[in-house]
Fold:
Amino acid sequence: MFNTMKHTARQTSARTLEDLIRSMDHKRAVTITYIDSDGEESVRTIEPHDIRTTSKGRVIIRAMCRMRSEMRTFHPERVVSYTIHRTRFALDAPTSEGRFTHTAQTPAELIALELGRDYPDLAPLVLAA
Structure:
């Protein structure tokens, strides 16, 4: 998993999220090739602190950006490639950021949490599956 460039076009989005969740859990830095909203490509090293879904259903990554030294939002569909490093996090996340209260360890748990949020009556059924 470490120090191998992975191209998101060559794998499922679930696999990409699994790897990013794993990097977050192990506090490992990730270098991404990212295309911003203006279509500009850049290479960034980030420290993912949270992966969540917006109220509109879009998955986002909240991460400390080493280039900017601040918390930024990244969209997984704009990540072209990534490498997970052996190096640990070096930046402190702002205390005002706070970690999302429900952290998913796997794509299945992420789906269950999102379905549970949108359909609370089905949550016990989804989590039991």
In short: The two ends are 28 Å apart (CA to CA). Confidence is low (pLDDT under 50) at residues 123-129.
